Amino acid sequence: MKKEEVPQDSSNLSKSNLKELCYATDENGNYITALSSGWEPKTIALQNSIEDINERIEQAKSDVASGLASPIVYFMELHKMDWTTLAGYVGMWVWRVKRHAKPSVFQKLNDKILGKYAEAFEISVSDLKKYKGN
Asked: Are residues 96 and 58 in the same domain?
């Protein structure tokens, strides 16, 4: 694309003043770099991703409130982690972290293990223990 054709989408996602480096051609056909604030398809994709993440957070919150999941699930979603990522942060096997997502198992965890989760989520052990999905 030519330098003057580099997309500059003025959506609400571009208000952060972040620019993306793109390659374009100048009037002589030489490749140059140009800054882009984004384009509509990318904005739509990002907005859809954000909506999906927010839905997953709300579902996790609801699951904790109804006793279907432990607070670990909510904070994992809130911090945009998956099981593998969380397991890496706390230094445990994925199957073990998934097991801790069960409320009955979570209630029996000691403060040392809960401390690993709290550190990963950047909260206190007390906040992790008392979260009820409210």
From this structure: yes
Q: Which whole-number Å values give the CA distances from 84 to 94, 110, 117, 120, in the listed order?
A: 6, 22, 13, 13
Tokens 């609400």 found at: 12
Specify the residue for token string 């694309």: 1
Count the neighbouring beta carbons within 10 Å of the beta carbon of residue 11.
15
Spatial distance between the Cα atoms of 13 and 7, rounded to a whole number of angstroms: 14
**AA identity, residue 88:** G
Q: Measured between alpha carbons, how far is 35 from 55 in angstroms, rounded to an integer?
A: 32
Say how many domains are in the chain: 2
- Write out pLDDT tens, residues 45-97: 888 999 999 999 999 999 999 999 999 999 999 999 999 999 999 999 999 99
The structure's pTM equals 0.76
